Amino acid sequence: MTVAASESPILIASGVRKTFRMGDSDIQVLKKVDLTVAPGEFIAIEGRSGSGKSTLLHILGALDECTGGAVMFDGRDIAKLSSADRAILRNTQFGFVFQFYHLLPELNVLENTMLSPMIGNSVGQFRAKKTEIISRARELLAQMGLEHRLRHRPRHLSGGERQRVAIARALMNQPRVVFADEPTGNLDADTGRQIMAVLERLHQNSRQTILLVTHDRTLAQRADRVLVLESGRLEIADCRLPNAD
Amino acid sequence: MPADQIILWIIVALAPVATIFALWRILKGPRIISKLMIRYLMKRRIAWVSLIAVMLCTAMVLIVISVMGGWLRMFRQTNHDLIGDLIIYRGSLDGFSHYEDMIADINKVPEIDAVTPTIRTGGLAEIGTAEMMTDPIHAMVEVVGVDIKQIGRVNGFVRSLHLQKDVLLAKADDFTHDAAQKRQDAATRAASDVPIDQFEAGQMQDDAQEDLAMVDSFRAKAADFPSFDKPLPDSVYRDQGFKGNPTKWGGIIVGSGVIGLRAHDERADNIYKARVKLTLVKVNPGDAGPSLGDMTSTNYYWLVDDSHTDVFQVDQGTVYLPFHVLQNQLDMGASTDTNAVTGQQEIVPARCSEILIRVKPGVDPYFVEPKVAAIVDAVTQKFGLDYGGFGQLKVETWDEHQRDFLNAVEHEELLLVILFAIISIVAIFLIFCIFFMIVMEKTRDIGIIKSVGATSSSVAAIFLGYGLSIGLLGGGMGLLLAYLVVHYINQLHAWMAHRFGLEIWNAKTYLFDTIPNTMNGRDVAVIVSVAILSSVLGALVPAIRAARMNPVEALRWE
User: CB within 8 A of A84, min separation 6: which ones?
Assistant: First the structure.
């Protein structure tokens, strides 16, 4: 899917740097990352293990702060937002899918899916919108093929099912951007392909903006745009690379 | 204020602030707070350990405070009840004179409600019914002379009497019913042709007549309540077979313990047929006489009632006589004497041992004490009374009078507060440790909910709310457990004594023969509140730690 040139970018990273302190020395993971994400775009960021892909995703998703540079979302500098405003951003505009699913073990599938509205709404508001919220969660879980698993706890689900619950959770508040951090990294090849198919379908049907981080070039190739994070910098992937075929 | 005290007050202030914050966030904050809080409480078994800990700590403190605090309150109340608000006394058996002048002046003080004189002395009592006269009981007793019409306005003595108005009227009703029954039976038998039955009918009529005499007697005593009146008709006393003129003997009230009774024991009517032979030693202010024999005085009385003040020692060894009767028996009443120097007749004023005073409701006895002391000084100066040295005439409030005892009791109270503080600290540390473990265990969950948009305050509120719910549940369960134990403590104690021979509560040591079994509302409110606040305080540091967690680091936690 191509991006209309007239549409203004939804997310812009300019000169993003991130340095970690390890004992007495500083390790610069991100040196100068520039990235522009247009609405509805499916971008894959590829890189070796430890290259800083997840760190970049966390910074773009307002989960972490950069050491230098700026990340603009909808024209606002994320770094300048308060901690509470960043939390609101994560709750209403962003959705996260993690490699290890990260579902809450005490909640069942339906409740895990409703996590965003449970965090974003007060007790009274939640009660007022409960029917609507439950119906949305059920619909998403049905789309993920989990309508028969609503009352199950995460420990009773397979890896693929867990990841589909995580995707449903990420989509619950209709986020502007979905950040997927190695979503297939913990799954077998077949299940991984199914999860990728879910993301692709989401992108194609709903024009969902997706930022996917993966070390698997084959999976990355399924995105609109593939970028490579190498030596702390983001570059356009060379499609002639051997395992890109 | 020293720095350590400031820190302590900050910590103490943090608990209610954190509790209010947690409550506010649970009720008004994101739905996830109450959801996860309840889910953690139900699903994490380790939380049950802290819940049980809070429950046991609360129950233990409530039981100890209710029993010991109840004992302290009973102790203070009964001591107050025994005396009144103020007391004027002299530490000598011969008492002091011109008490009537003092009472007249004290009554003029606007803050005074009632005043009464009493006499205290020691005596030897022989108590028994006619059937028991081969083996009566003998006891050394404290004899107290009271104006029974007045003392009820000053202290709680009248409330301690067994034969209250309603008890007397109930007895009268019983006898009325018996008499009616006997008359009905007599009428049936009288109609019989058999001479024996007719004879029995006559006897029944006589019995019914005696019952009606009992009715009149009990009713008369009820009408005159409180009094030293005899509860039975003169004919009963006359028929007991004692020498002398038994119908002329007056009444005496004995401490329930003197005749082996407890507060709720059933009183058989034959205890009112008991004669009390009382021998006293008269102590005069001047020459005591050549021998003890000259100073003794023996009189006979009918046991007319028993008093149960709840104070074991008092009930075990005190008898009560009408003030003027005792005054006369001790030669403490007003009399005339010939002055050895002038040879003229002089009036010797009446004496008493102490004056008990009740102040008006809402008046502080300490405020009135100097006014009473000034009156006592004025009277002693006016009449040139010399009560210096060992036998000094003193004016004290009821708590000053029992200072030695009360001081010991107050130290015990302080000990309880320290004990409570230690238990609270233990509970706080226990919850702190458990919550620290829970937060460590739940680190990844914290990362998850933060990544989905939970703010730091919401995360803190989850753990504070968790602590609060443990405090509320643990405190509530502790209260229930404590209520059951305290409410049935006397039965429990009796069962333990019966089953294991374990008697913890000794009436001789603790003054009262029953263990206090009521809970004070204020104590309950304070203890349960402290339990709840301690639980929140214990969860505070782990909650702050959870709130400050970086979501990325939390997600990577293993």
Answer: B455, B456, B457
CA distance B486 to B267: 28
Mapped onto helix, strand or coil, the DSSP state of residue A166 is helix
Would you call A104 and B36 a contact, using CB atoms and an 8 Å cutoff?
A: yes
Give me the percent of chain B exceeding a pLDDT of 90. 38
Which 8-state DSSP code applies to residue B67?
I
| Whether B447 and A87 lie within 8 Å, measured CB to CB | no
Peptide bond into B16 cis (omega under 30): no
Number of domains in chain B: 2
B374 and B521, same domain (yes or no): no
- B403-448 confidence digits (pLDDT tens): 887 788 778 778 877 887 787 788 778 878 887 888 888 888 899 9
Residues B137 and B257 in one domain: yes
Q: Which residues span the domain enclosing B546?
A: 3-78+406-556
Task: Give the CA diameter of chain B.
Answer: 113
ipTM, two decimals, is: 0.90
> Which of B40, B445, B449 lies nearest to residue A119, judging by beta carbons?
B449
Residue of A nearest to B40 (CA): A106
Selection from B80, B81, B83, B87 nearest residue B376 by Cα: B87
| CA B552 to chain centroid | 64
Does B183 map to a domain? no
Q: Which of A71, A44, A68, A50 is nearest to A60 (CA)?
A: A71
The nearest CA of chain B is from the CA of A175 a distance in Å of: 11
Tell whether B433 and B513 lie within a shared domain.
yes
B550 to A64: CB separation less than 8 angstroms, yes or no: yes
- Measure in Å the smallest separation between the Cα of B74 and chain A Cα atoms: 48
Name the residue in chain B with its Cα closest to that of A175. B452
User: What sign for the dihedral angle of Cα A49, A55, A60, A61?
Assistant: positive
Quick one: B107 and B252 in the same domain? yes
C-beta neighbour count of B231 within 10 angstroms: 24
**Domain end among B358, B391, B424:** B391
**Interface mutation vs chain A, best among B24, B32, B34, most A CBs within 10 Å:** B32
Q: Would you call A118 and B455 a contact, using CB atoms and an 8 Å cutoff?
A: no
Q: What is the pTM of this model?
A: 0.68
In this complex, how many residue pairs, one in chain A and one in chain B, have their CB atoms less than 8 Å apart? Answer: 92
Least CB–CB distance from A115: residue in B444, B447, B452: B452
Instruction: Quick: pLDDT tens for A49-90.
Output: 888 888 999 999 999 999 999 999 988 899 889 999 999 999
Would the CA dihedral through B452, B456, B458, B460 be positive or negative?
Answer: positive
Nearest to A99 by CA among A54, A156, A62: A54
How far is A167 from chain B, CA to nearest CA, in Å?
12
Interface residue B29 vs chain A (CB under 8 A) = yes
Same domain, B368 and B260: yes
Q: Facing residues of B338 across strands?
A: B345
3-class DSSP state for residue A26? strand
Residue type, B370: P
The DSSP secondary structure of A133-148, one letter per residue, reads HHHHHHHHHHHTT-GG
The closest of A191, A205, A186, A137 to A165, measured between CA atoms, is: A137
Question: pLDDT for A137-185, tens place per residue?
Answer: 999 999 888 989 899 999 999 988 999 999 999 999 999 999 999 888 8
Q: Do A91 and B452 form a contact (C-beta atoms < 8 A)?
A: yes
